[in-house]
Amino acid sequence: MVEVSAAKRNITPLFPMYMRGYAMRTKKSIGVLDELYCRTLVLKIDGIPFIWVTLDLCRLEEPISAYMRQVLAAKYSVPMENITISTIHTHSGPDISFEDEGEDRNRRKANYRDYMIRQVFASVDQCFDQSFLEVTPYMVKGTIKDVYGNRNYKDKPSDKEINMILFCSDNHVAAGIFQFTCHPTVLGIHNMKISSDLMGNIGKSLDDKYNSVFITIQGACGDMGNRQYRKGNDEKELWKVRDEIMSQISVFEKTRVPIKLKTESIKTSEYTICGSYDLNSLKQQLAQDEKKLASATTEDEKKLLWSGIRHLKKKLVCGGVNTALKSVIYHLGDLEIVTIPGELFSTFGMEIKSHLKAPVRMIWGYANYSAGYIVEKNEFGKGYESMQTPFPKGEAELYVSHLIQDL
Questions:
Q1: What is the C-alpha to C-alpha distance for residues 11 and 8, in angstroms, rounded to an integer?
Q2: pLDDT tier at 310 (50, 70, 90 boundaries)?
Q3: Rounded CA gap, 77 and 5, in Å?
Q4: Using one digit for the tens of pLDDT, what is the confidence trace for 233-275?
Q5: Which of 23, 164, 181, 316 could form a disulfide with 307 if both were Cys (CB 3.0 to 4.6 A apart)?
Q6: CA nearest to 181, candidates 245, 127, 98
Q7: Please, what is the Cα angle at 353 between 53 and 148, to 5 degrees?
Q8: Ramachandran category for residue 252: left, alpha or beta (phi over 0 → left; psi -120 to 50 → alpha)
Q9: pTM score > 0.90 for this model?
Q10: 397, exposed or middle or buried, with CB in 10 Å at 0-12, 13-18, 19+?
């Protein structure tokens, strides 16, 4: 038997916030374009509970998600492995990091973190307080065309598949899951209004369409985006891209296929990356990229180089990396999910999914925390992602291989 309860709570900042996502953008927000939400699905499969939460934020740091998961696990007697809290990676949401960035910014971040955490707990409480509905799950699948793809190479293979699960009760969609693989960054560096950007607005559209709550799951989108397709980077373009994706979803959802869920196994796969950086190589790359920034002419070039240079300088200061990548592998009958604590390149995501067997196979990115870009070794030195990643060249392949062995 499958039962669900879903809720959402507003997590729009109550005061101006410094925004996360573009290093060039240094001022506080000046309003709200659309509201941010915490979306919660409590799923029971033959009585075994799962708490899945998605947040309309850029990223979480592990201490925040670990604290929330520990509290929820203790309160509701749910194993921590069964609790996933993720972000959709909007670049128009508030910065909530623990990075020391001055008294004003630090205070705003701390106040917002407290507010957001209270709202997450309230949404989960609401799910358990209200009645659970017995449901029949249906899958909806499709491939999005001519809207997004690999953001660095338009013709390179990339994951354009969307996955939806509709939890239906008496011909009503009681709750849903929507998953796609794309950096949801239509809005550019000049946008100073709080927004959930593309992913959040698809979620709102699905909520309205079905009078329900859809959690919104981001995929292996480290090199995915709509940069190669969009005609602008303002709110007009955002609504256009949203509407095009919703139009294609409307075609896919005409074919719903029932699926069976059962708890086969849930386990954690952990891979530790530890090592020192080649500081001379980083210094050389920094000098080259600073020259490129000085001669850059387009907004996209400037924002990527600016952010990349910022991360290169951080790597020079810290000198190395010591990080554990913790993934949860869900085998739930016709649904298999692999969580990724970061921004995995799409080729890796497709490789992992090729080793799964269920009709619905999802990579769940930015899950529980984000450790950064997980980049193919042959992309090092070619783009922003390899400038930003904290992981040495070749470690991504070892991590993915380790994860596949644990499937």
A1: 9
A2: confident
A3: 17
A4: 999 999 999 999 999 999 999 999 999 999 999 999 999 988 7
A5: 23
A6: 245
A7: 75
A8: alpha
A9: yes
A10: middle
